Amino acid sequence: MSNLSMLTDLYEFSMANGYYEAANDEVGSFDVFFRKVPDQGSFVIFAGLQQAVDALENFHFDQPDIDYLRGLHLYSEGFLDYLQHFKFDCEVWAIPEGTPVFPREPLLTIKGPLLQTQLFETLLLNILNHQSLIATKARRITYAAEGRPVMEFGARRAQGPSSATYGARAAIIGGCTSTSNVQAAELFGIPAAGTMAHSWIEAFPDELTAFEKWGEIYPDNAALLVDTYDVLSSGVPNAIKVFKELQAAGHKPVGIRIDSGDIAQLAKAARQQLDAAGLPEVKITASNSLDETVIQALLKEGAPIDNFGIGEKLITSASAPVLSGVYKLTAVQSQGQWVPKIKISDSTEKLTLPSIKQVYRLYRPGSDQAFGDVIALKDEVLTSDITAVPASPLATKRQTVLKDFVAVPLQQPVLTQDHPDYVAPNLPEIQQRTQEKLAELPAATKRLVNPDEYRVYLTKSLADLQTELVQKYHEKEHVQ
């Protein structure tokens, strides 16, 4: 990954310069979390951690960067010299990539000098918000496909080259099987997939000649696009002729792709033609602005589709194009002691969770089925029975007792003194983790429409600390 140190909002530089000028060398702890799940779902697939860590490890300023900042006439020479000799001096804890996560849970925690940690806000949110959003959309689409392979086809509709490439990576984490994006395939070891465009067929005198030439050049990759002219009267019959020729020469036909029209009805009729020609093994792929809603409708109608190619609705998460993750200060270390910090708002939904925390996933003893998460203070020990409150500010039941569980901590050290080098899992391993962790969730929470709520709790100690800090603020405000 290229150096992304300048991918920072100006105010972050201004605050960092302020810390430098004020000789504030205190250590702060920031959390990355989100408040709302896209598409009215119940969870998000956490993605982008490897790129976030790479960006932190490669964080530095080149001479042109320093010259530009100097030219703004905002910052001291001492601060600019600090940036020129920048040395990463922070610790990072995070939930592993591919894990289903829930609102208000700290996905990533970074501790370090305020002067440094303040500079990472935009960079970390840009990476983690984007990839988590696309991985979550891919999970919804692959869930709708009910086990059928889903190919990511969205590069041309993505919002820029980086979104295309890292979006393809995130789509694999969310469950896609391949990508048409060759750059992403090369960078991340993703299977590359693709057939042809309509222009190939149009470039030849007729459709049959185009198919025959393709079969001649790619006899073992004969996946033919059949909707350039007419799917049923020309496309599929011409494809059948070529498939028969390939079979006679000892090759195995791959399939056809339908990219327009009434895909359900066309797929049914095409399947009948292929089967009648003795080609039941030939696959049917559907594309053309599909998403989870359309896929579910096609399958409910009985469309005999074997694969899906998904483009713009996936790579842009078109129905919910933003994951509004935030980066909030939760504690400051003063004279060796951690002092909890909180952001107070008139809206209870924007009230932050103070102090350094850990997230636990709760399982029944002897089971791999999760039934809830608990956000706890970092130094808390979860006993067999704990008093907890719902994490959602909108919950009506304010206290419950949790018992008979095994608590598994989710946040793990990523970059610390004891773990100075992050060893990232490869993409297939992250995808496998996603599938394993999804299997642990209650089935009703994975529905695409009206999913059941997965319970997330705060320990009573954390909830009491939050209440205490709010009360202290209001008491102080009243005195003033």
From TrEMBL:
One of its GO terms (cellular component) is cytosol. Residues 6-129 form the Nicotinate phosphoribosyltransferase N-terminal domain. Transiently phosphorylated on a His residue during the reaction cycle. Phosphorylation strongly increases the affinity for substrates and increases the rate of nicotinate D-ribonucleotide production. Dephosphorylation regenerates the low-affinity form of the enzyme, leading to product release. It is an enzyme of class 6 (ligase). Pathway: Cofactor biosynthesis; NAD(+) biosynthesis; nicotinate D-ribonucleotide from nicotinate: step 1/1. Belongs to the NAPRTase family. This is Nicotinate phosphoribosyltransferase. It comes from Agrilactobacillus composti DSM 18527 = JCM 14202.
